[in-house]
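Field: COMPLEX_INPUT
Field: COMPONENT_COUNT = two
Field: RESIDUE_TOTAL = 314
Field: MODE = joint
Values follow.
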Amino acid sequence: MAVEVERKFLVTSDDWRANATGASFRQGYIDTSDETTVRVRIAGDAAFLTIKGPSEGMSRAEFEYPIPLSDAQDMLRDLCRRPLIEKTRYDVSFGGKLWSVDVFGAENSGLIMAEVELDHPAESVPLPPWVGEEVTEDPRYRNSALSLSPAPGTQAP
Amino acid sequence: MAVEVERKFLVTSDDWRANATGASFRQGYIDTSDETTVRVRIAGDAAFLTIKGPSEGMSRAEFEYPIPLSDAQDMLRDLCRRPLIEKTRYDVSFGGKLWSVDVFGAENSGLIMAEVELDHPAESVPLPPWVGEEVTEDPRYRNSALSLSPAPGTQAP
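Field: COMPLEX_OUTPUT
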């Protein structure tokens, strides 16, 4: 078991975009009845099945396995609830850490979120000038929640 | 994606037991809100994460991945709903097919079920004399249901 320790922020400007390289992510969730999530993700040409436990602050247990792309396509088509999450993930270095900036599409168009993985919950990280409000513990901004109801301020079609 | 095509029967006698070899299974389910199931199974020293789609008669989509034993132990302990399913699975050859005879323990003590995988839904298989009522399409006898409420006729402790 890995423990994912992560902080998430809303992004407030485009200043992160210079030289950032992006990859297309498409992911969905098998509907669970508690806070455990079961995610199917296609990231570029790779695919993963990921189980995450309930959040405890900024930490969650995470179990991730690479799976065949065709399995992920089948599960996204047949088993994951609608709508799927579509986003482009950009890798951005700042202050010695690798940040992921997610530019959401489809139902969550307009939402841009940045996240950074910590080595432990007490780790202090310098915050880039292009992040604003921290939403680490706001359940509305979990990707699994975004596939149920779009983020505040975005426009569902 | 594999498609699992399976028929299940209640077992009515002990005549299958001669020479049958058994392995301990311990499995649990991440609680889902529809008929998709997410199963964590420890079978002897091996472990698997299995996603199954809704049943269509005797067929279900099935996606199965070997996972580290310690991951399965963690997920069974922390993420799967109670009670877990405990059973001993015996492999029994009959009429050219390999049958699995599951002798349930814990909350489902007293339940013995036999299942056989078919190559296609129309395949005709000879039925062993030790099977009785067919329960293929009886949702109460799905293992995922047995972990919610014990089988008819068994004694919850």
